[in-house]
Amino acid sequence: MFNKSDFIAELKFETTENGGRKTPAHSSYRPHIEFENYPEYLTSGQQTYIGKEIVHPGETINAEIGIIGTEYFSGRLFEGMKFKFCEGRHIIGFGEIIEIINQNLKSDTETNINLFLYPKDILKKIEIQFGENNGEIVRKLQDFIKKNKSSRSPRMIRAILHLSNGNKVQIEKSIKEAETDWRDILFWAEYDKKENRIRDFNKEFGKENLKPAGNKI
């Protein structure tokens, strides 16, 4: 039983005809939650309805939500953030955060960093390189950019992925080296042994190669 509320949200329950519940939901209902920016991490959220005890399919209600896994969402939630709530694979409804109660979860302009909002070529590269392990790699990179302000650019993430070449051990090594000195990562990824710049990871994957090569640092 939850004994806390992390945020207040507006909840819109789907109708039964659109795949929603066949019966009303009672206050303390606890479906799975999937935030739009963090589909790789499911949590459970207990809904405490404001002003009533029962919500019928198709209705809209404000509710206090208490979630599990708050450590993962520390500094990542913001007002206006959208999510869906589900029972298994069935989407029961959609929500939008209107007020953060647990201030440890609240993001600001510096910590609202989310790999899923980066250019799409990055996530596609992760999927191609790591296959079924892509979720694990996304979490590693997400933690990296959250902790390291100087390494949040798409250029840096592309350089790390280039150096890893689909190897889990190598990507962990590259992340550690980037935490020590991010300039080394860019040099190794973008320059050849003769110190000619041959790639520019400001550009998306597939367009990073420089022609002609030969720009000195």
Task: Give the SSE map.
Blueprint: E1 7-13, E2 25-26, E3 32-35, E4 43-49, E5 54-55, E6 60-67, E7 82-87, E8 90-100, H1 120-130, H2 134-147, H3 154-164, H4 168-180, H5 182-190, E9 196-197, E10 215-216
Helix pairs in contact: 2-4, 3-4, 3-5, 4-5
Describe the structure in your own words.
- With 217 residues, the protein is of the alpha+beta class.
- The chain folds into two domains: 7-105, Elongation Factor Tu (Ef-tu), domain 3 (Beta Barrel); 115-216, no CATH class.
- It is built from five helices and ten strands.
- The strands form three sheets. The protein has a six-stranded antiparallel β-barrel with strand order 1-6-4-3-7-8. It has a two-stranded antiparallel ribbon with strand order 2-5. The chain has a two-stranded antiparallel ribbon with strand order 9-10.
- Helix 3 crosses helix 4 and helix 4 packs across helix 5 (182-190).
- It is elongated and about 70 Å long.
- How many structural domains in the coordinates? 2
Helix content: 25-40%
What string gives the helices and strands in order? EEEEEEEEHHHHHEE
SS strand fraction: 15-25%
Number of helices: 5
> What is the topology, as strand order, of the major beta sheet?
1-6-4-3-7-8
